[in-house]
Amino acid sequence: MKNLLNFSIILFLITIFGCDDNVEIDKRIAIKYKDTEQFSALSIHFDEVIEDSRCREGWFCIWQGRYRVSLIISDGEKQESYIVTNLPKSPVDTNTVNFEDYTIELISLNSSPGGDKQFDLEDYILELRITRDPN
Q1: What is the span of the domain harbouring residue 52?
Q2: CATH number reported for the structural domain that contains residue 37 in this entry
Q3: What average pLDDT does the segment 53-74 reach?
Q4: CB 3.0 to 4.6 Å from 46: which of 3, 31, 57, 133, for a disulfide?
Q5: How many CA atoms does the CB half-sphere of 9 hold within 13 Å?
Q6: Is residue 43 assigned to a domain?
Q7: How many domains does the chain have?
Q8: Does residue 15 belong to any structural domain of this protein?
């Protein structure tokens, strides 16, 4: 009987505290071009490479270049499209998106070809940092 009571109390505590949506999150994810990643309640789709004027590996360039990509973020009820860039220069350009309780930050856009090879869109991998402050 005592074991049953202890088990019931433990189960009750797990139910109450184990399902808390108000936990802090700080996670990095990688998404391939045209893929969608699920994270918690979010669905993040790497939709398009709008611009990539970065210096290719092995080349000499005067400036580092920039890239801009399109993301589609949804939570099952709401869906929004965003453009993020590695060099935000104006209020319109940003490397961070706020969606519901989440902040999605652009970390990098990786692609492998260097030299004279052409970039294939399928080579792009977008790295994002997702955070959520429970407050």
Answers
A1: 23-132
A2: 2.60.98
A3: 85
A4: 31
A5: 6
A6: yes
A7: 1
A8: no
Instruction: Indicate the range of 11-15, 71-75, 116-120 predicted with least confidence.
Output: 11-15
**85-113 burial by CB neighbour count: b if 16+ within 10 A, else e?**
bbeeeeeeeeeebebebbbbebeebebee
Sort 128 into a burial class: Cβ within 10 Å, 0-12 / 13-18 / 19+.
buried
CA angle 131, 36, 85 (to 5 degrees): 60
Specify the amino acid at residue 1: M
**Higher pLDDT, residue 100 or 9:** 100
pLDDT of 56 higher than 80:
no
pLDDT single digits (tens) 73-86: 999 899 999 999 98
Give residue 53's pLDDT: 83
The terminus-to-terminus CA distance of the chain in angstroms comes to: 41
Residues 6+ apart with CB under 8 A from 99: 42, 73, 75, 80, 82
Please list the alpha-helical segments (H only) found in 18-117: none
Quick count: other Cβ atoms within 10 Å of Cβ 36? 13
Among the ranges given (7-11, 45-49, 62-66), the one the predictor scored with the smallest mean pLDDT: 7-11
